[in-house]
UniProtKB/TrEMBL annotation:
Its cofactor is Mg(2+). Belongs to the Nudix hydrolase family. Residues 41-169 form the Nudix hydrolase domain. Mg(2+) binds at E94, E98. The lineage of its organism: Bacteria, Pseudomonadati, Pseudomonadota, Gammaproteobacteria, Pseudomonadales. This is Isopentenyldiphosphate isomerase. GO terms for molecular function: hydrolase activity, acting on acid anhydrides; isomerase activity; metal ion binding. Keywords: Hydrolase, Isomerase, Magnesium, Metal-binding. InterPro entries: NUDIX_hydrolase-like_dom_sf, NUDIX_hydrolase_CS, NUDIX_hydrolase_dom, NUDIX_hydrolase_YfcD_pred.
Length: 181
């Protein structure tokens, strides 16, 4: 992907309209994604855990030009919920964009507040089962692999997006959770 394409993609991404919320997930207004990021505003995000019928989890590596966590591995597809979208609509859109997965039922598990030096967000956590092909969005995803989420799957030297790791830890703690196996 050439630098001109990357620059155009990043500019378009920054101009997206997103929902600004407070620490209780109450809507405060609509702002540009770039404004939310530069001002450290709380936004709504989605985390979609994609399992296959063997119970393996799809993890992907973010591209090096991502503003947040560049080249980190991510255990969930997802992203910022756009203005006018519900958490579910945002999850469906992000899953189709990033991994080319659509038309699959999503299970919503819970929502949680994530607060770090890099970002503050309300996350809607979803999962699905997918055994079909993946079509990676080249602007956002550079590699994927399938792992057993209940084993020691993190490789030495790899960095992982902390927000999705927290979402996964919470998901795996839910005793009533039945992974898509």
């Amino acid at each position: 992907m050439d630098q001109q394409h990357i620059a155009a993609y990043l500019q378009a991404s920054g101009s997206e309209r997103v929902i600004h919320v407070d620490e209780q997930d109450r809507e405060l207004g609509v702002v540009s994604r770039a404004d939310a990021q530069s001002r450290g505003l709380i936004t709504r995000c989605t985390f979609i855990f994609v399992f296959n019928s063997l119970g393996e989890l799809c993890v992907h590596q973010r591209t090096p030009h991502k503003r947040l966590y560049p080249s980190f591995w991510d255990v969930a597809a997802g992203g910022v919920v756009a203005a006018g979208e519900s958490y579910l609509q945002g999850a469906e859109r992000e899953l189709a964009e990033e991994l080319g997965v659509s038309g699959v039922p999503l299970t919503e598990h819970f929502r949680f507040f994530f607060n770090s030096a890099e970002s503050q967000l309300w996350g809607g956590v979803f999962s699905c089962c997918w055994d079909g092909p993946l079509t990676l969005q080249p602007e956002e995803v550079q590699a994927v692999r399938w792992v057993d989420p209940r084993s020691d799957w993190q490789r030495a030297g790899e960095q992982y997006a902390p927000d999705s790791l927290e979402a996964l830890a919470r998901l795996l703690q839910h005793s009533s959770l039945e992974l898509h196996a």
